[in-house]
Design goal:
Helix content: 25-40%
Largest sheet: 9 strands, mixed
Order of helices and strands: HEHEEHHEHEEHEHEEHEHEHEEH
CATH class of one domain: Alpha Beta
Strand content: 15-25%
CATH topology of one domain: Rossmann fold
Number of strands: 13
Strand order of the largest sheet: 3-4-2-5-1-6-7-8-13
Shape: globular
CATH architecture of one domain: 3-Layer(aba) Sandwich
Low-confidence stretches: none
Structural class: alpha/beta
Length: about 325
């Protein structure tokens, strides 16, 4: 489902629909406040890092988790990731994701992607997943989402935000894209990580007052693959939070996008859909290209026909993040 456009109007001029829905947003905010005020059920014996957001939908949590996994690993720490496995069939769990034998239909696309970098546990009960990870000798836990879930005590909470979209119109669901008011969320956060270009970062800082919480900019950069995208004629498709970001990255790499197909976040790549895209690409004389997250959902017969453009998160000041992580271990 694509979010309604009025969610991303100016916070100063949110529009009539946002104002009409504001009472429902207030009720949603109260319910969230009551939930997050509940005491934690369990405190892990290892540091727990929460990578969450205030917005509904994708903001860049998965590449942030991967970047933190890589940084912790470089520090000599063995991190495990816990996730609800959105889009998968696993219910309560916990289930450890096995990259080579599980598929996205079972465990979800994001956990399957992250399992290439660290052990990942999926299930609706985050406490149970955390306990299973600790029993498996995890030295740190990274929560993929769960900022509004109080059951597992957190030691370091990062709010990830797309700098281009910010916090939308600043309203809570259904009046806007937020799970809770910005001020309430920032009070519980240790760091805001905004992802975007220099111009997007500047605009984000102009609109949103982050005083009182640390702010670290970052950007997504294509991973060097030993090939040039320049001049390559492509049919690009993406089922992520904001497909336009992927298409813009491809253009910046020099690819010639003959057609761009935005899909819903986590949309199933059915054989019928892939057959249609493959026929259209053939008719255009184009190469099919998608994201890493979408690639793990591809039917086996389509994988040899689709190129992937992987991206990695780059912190503007990686030493600042490293110092914060080291502080969790008393370094």
């Amino acid at each position: 489902m694509r979010p309604p456009g009025f969610w991303f109007a100016s916070p100063e001029r949110p529009g009539l629909r946002a104002r009409l829905l504001a009472p429902l947003g207030a009720l949603y905010a109260v319910a969230t406040a009551r939930r997050v005020a509940r005491p934690a059920q369990w405190r892990a014996p290892v540091p727990v890092i929460c990578v969450g957001n205030l917005n509904l939908g994708g903001t860049g949590k998965t590449p942030t988790v991967i970047a933190l996994v890589q940084m912790l690993t470089e520090m000599g720490v063995r991190p495990h990731v816990i996730s609800r496995g959105y889009g998968g069939r696993v219910a309560r769990g916990p289930l450890r994701v096995i990259e080579r034998s599980h598929d996205a239909d079972l465990v979800g696309d994001e956990p399957l992607l992250m399992a290439a970098f660290a052990p990942v546990w999926v299930g609706s009960d985050r406490v149970a997943a955390a306990q299973a990870a600790v029993e498996a000798q995890a030295e740190a836990l990274i929560m993929d989402d769960g900022f509004q879930d109080p059951r597992l005590a957190k030691d370091f909470s990062v709010i990830v935000v797309d700098a281009a979209m910010g916090f939308g119109n600043g309203r809570v669901l259904p009046a806007g894209p937020l799970r809770e008011p910005v001020t309430a969320g920032l009070r519980r956060a240790d760091l805001v990580l905004s992802i975007g270009s220099d111009a997007q970062q500047a605009r984000f800082s102009e609109i949103w007052d982050l005083r009182g919480v640390a702010h670290l900019p970052a950007r997504l950069a294509p991973l060097a693959m030993g090939m040039s995208w320049r001049g390559l004629r492509v049919l690009a498709f993406a089922g992520i939070g904001r497909p336009e970001k992927f298409f813009a990255t491809l253009r910046a790499e020099g690819a010639e996008i003959l057609r761009a197909e935005p899909l819903s976040d986590h949309q199933r790549l059915s054989p019928g859909l892939m057959t249609r895209l493959e026929l259209e690409a053939k008719a255009l004389g184009a190469q099919l290209v998608t994201t890493e997250k979408d690639a793990v959902r591809l039917p086996a017969t389509s994988r040899p026909k689709v190129l992937t453009l992987p991206v990695r998160l780059r912190f503007e000041a990686p030493e600042q993040m490293r110092v914060r992580l080291e502080g969790l271990f008393g370094a």
